[in-house]
Amino acid sequence: ETVTVAVLDHLEHLALVDFRNAEGVERLQKAIQFADQLHEVNTEGIQPMDSVLEDRCLYLREDDVTEGNCTKELLKNAREKIEEYFVAPPGNIPLPKLEERDTFLQGS
Amino acid sequence: WVPVVGLEIHAQISSNSKLFSGSQVQFAAPPNSLVSFFDASLPGTLPVLNRRCVEAAVMTGLALNCSINKKSLFDRKHYFYADLPAGYQITQQRVPIAVNGSLSYSLCVDNKMSQMVTKTVRIKQIQLEQDSGKSLHDDARSQTLIDLNRAGVGLMEVVMEPDMCCGEEAAAAVRELQLILQTLGSSQAIMAEGQLRVDANVSVHHPGEPYGVRTEVKNINSMRFLAKAVDYEIQRQIEELENGGTILNETRAFDSKLGCTIPMRDKEGKQDYRFMPEPNLPPLILYDARSLPVDMNHQQVVNIDWIRERLPDLPSVTRAKLVELYGILPEHSFTLLNEDGLAEYFENVIKKTQMKPKKVIGWILNDLLSYLKQHALTVKESPVSSFLLADLLNLLEKREISSSAAKQVLEELWKGEGKTPLEIVKEKKLELIQDQKELEQICQAVIDGQEDEVMAIKAGNLKVLNKLIGLVQRATRGRSNPVLVKQILEKKLSE
Lengths: 108, 495
What we know:
The complex is a heterodimer of chains A (108) and B (495). Chain A is of the alpha+beta class and 108 residues long.
């Protein structure tokens, strides 16, 4: 069972990763196969564990103002700024459709 | 056609600091001044849950008759947008903090206040989640300015099942939720400041058939627009289907200027949010009286029962109390609670006057409220305080002035010149004529001048008597007691 081009295309859209070449896809395939070994464990009736922190106490903070007020420092990271606002492009620029972009996936 | 309307409401939690960080929550501050390193999603930062936000969600869940989940979980909802620096929002998708509640609200039938119907909408769930930053679109320069002050502010998302059928019901339900939130203090819920945002899910179908495709309507900025947007979308869908078209499962924005919904630019197709558990936060555990841990630091414990015991009276309870205590009508109680401060004003007047509440309410709702509305004033801004009004009503109650004179005094009081009702009465000589002889003379004069009317009354047409009473009132410039005048006239006419 291989990962389909449709799924790879979907992943490139969503996560903006670039599989770049056949080797990249192969690496993904191998990773999935490796993880699939988990299915050998019988987990019927068992609640999934999603974190080893599940028995830890979730710490609750008091509702006090303790941070903020560091506009200058934050804006140091910005390539472009206007009057203390971060500047971003006008909207999300979606990845072009599979047919329209330059990716090795097209050939697959 | 059966329209089906569900709502997703985001209410900003009223707290000093944000949901997962210690930066301040405040409307209209200098851009990016209320932003911590975590809010800006800088590496090496972690979320730390604000206790106050948890309490606000529990309060709200209890007020909406929900089951509170003693164990709830946090998840990440991924999508890319410039005002979401982390690339994901921390929310509660799998197990939210509260589920399966209900909200009762009232509607006027046919716009008549006297006929109110109670409806209920089921609350699917309430979840805690982060707000995003704000995007200011500058289309002219093809850029967007990002302010992260709002990023990370705590939100309660209240999901209402599709139990509503039109804009009026949706608006009434949201209004009641708003009052509840404000009463609890869990959110100030001011729509104009973005503290209460509503998205509507709308579909139509034929009775007996399965539900139709639904659209989501966003960008509704006020209660008024909510009803309009929902009703427009219902109409649009009906027309589209009757013309043989289909409804797309899409997101539409409400354009308040044009009064219609338009598709939002959806270049990216359906979103895949790739929900995953938030790995940095263990489950949120809440306790009640029975499960209270003995050895834990109190500050770390949220006790549902403790919160339940301290819930204030909800609007529905306050309304019922007002009706029972003062004998006013249910629709009056709605109006009293609908205006901020009006119920308090009413009760303050009651305290200071001998006039019966059933009479006082008329002055509050007809005279005071209509004046305030005409001049776009809030109760707090009223130039006539509850003390002044009570003074005036006392004069009326003691029969020192007539009710029309009282209205004249009220006119003067609105000017806010600092005069007391008694001073105005003296100034304008509005006291009721107490002298019986004087009244009899005036009545006689009116009788003498209205031969035709007198004949009609003597012939049995008693309604004409009211005209004579009116004439006496006019002659005395409102200074005669109509009951007394009627007695005198009747006596004279029977002689």
